[in-house]
Structure formats: structure tokens, C-alpha cells
């Protein structure tokens, strides 16, 4: 299993990014979480197979209609074996 910690900047708040990502994560079969940050970015952790994580990362780079992601900083972190995917409160 693979887990990544991701920060996405650009126009990613107020466009349904987190809630669409939750649907994408469920469809991909990954676990983790996503939340807005006060600086206007979105932060997430995604865990699954290499292919599942890569699929979600590819979606994160595009985002939902109306968003304009500009950068995504991805850091590999240890897998936790967690289940489910949630939208968390703003950090």
C-alpha cells in the first residue's frame, strides 16, 4: 500500500473540490481525508495501491469544473491501513 500527503494550491476552494474528491476517492477505492486550509489551499492524504493513488493524484491536478489547481506538492508517507475517506474541518 502507498500513502501520500498532498497540498494543492490555486483556485481550489469554493468550487466543490473536497466533496467531489470524496466521490472520486470512493470510486477509486482509496482511503484518507481532505480538508481546506486557511491559506486557500487544499490538503489531503490518500492511501491505496500505486494505481489507485496515481488515479486520484491525476484527478487532483485537474480538479472539478470551476477549479484551477496550479501546484500539487506530494510527499510519500507511511501507510496506516486506515479505511474510509472523509472530508475534514478546515485547518
Reconstruct the topology from this structure:
Elements: E1 2-11, H1 17-28, E2 31-36, E3 42-48, H2 50-62, E4 68-77, E5 85-87
Helix pairs in contact: 1-2
Characterization of the model:
With 91 residues, the chain is an alpha+beta fold. It has a single domain (2-83), classed as Alpha-Beta Plaits, CATH 3.30.70.100. The chain is 27% helix and 40% strand. A hairpin with a 5-residue loop joins β2 and β3. The model has no long low-confidence stretch (mean pLDDT 97). This is acylphosphatase. Its EC number is 3.6.1.7. Keywords: Hydrolase.
Attribute tags:
91 residues, alpha+beta, Alpha-Beta Plaits, five-stranded mixed beta sheet, 5 strands, 40% strand
Summarize it.
The protein has 91 residues and is an alpha+beta fold. 27% of the residues lie in helices and 40% in strands.
How many angstroms separate the termini?
A: 26 Å
Which consecutive residue ranges, at least 5 long each, have pLDDT under 50? none
Instruction: Report on the biggest sheet.
Output: 5 strands, mixed
| Average of pLDDT | 97
User: What is the count of structural domains?
Assistant: 1
Widest sheet, order of strands: 4-1-3-2-5
Helix content: 25-40%
The first-level CATH class name: Alpha Beta
Helix-strand pattern: EHEEHEE
Radius of gyration over C-alpha positions, nearest whole angstrom: 12 Å
CATH T-level topology: Alpha-Beta Plaits
Proportion in β-strands: 35-45%
CATH second-level architecture: 2-Layer Sandwich
Tally of separate helices: 2
Structural category is: alpha+beta
Amino acid at each position: 500500500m502507498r500513502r501520500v500527503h498532498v497540498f494543492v494550491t490555486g483556485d481550489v476552494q469554493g468550487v466543490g473540490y473536497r466533496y467531489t474528491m470524496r466521490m472520486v476517492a470512493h470510486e477509486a477505492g482509496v482511503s484518507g481525508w481532505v480538508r481546506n486550509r486557511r491559506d486557500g489551499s487544499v490538503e489531503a492524504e490518500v492511501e491505496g495501491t500505486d494505481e489507485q493513488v496515481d488515479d486520484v493524484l491525476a484527478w487532483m491536478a485537474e480538479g472539478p469544473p470551476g477549479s484551477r489547481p496550479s501546484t500539487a506538492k506530494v510527499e510519500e508517507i507511511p501507510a496506516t491501513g486506515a479505511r474510509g475517506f472523509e472530508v475534514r474541518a478546515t485547518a
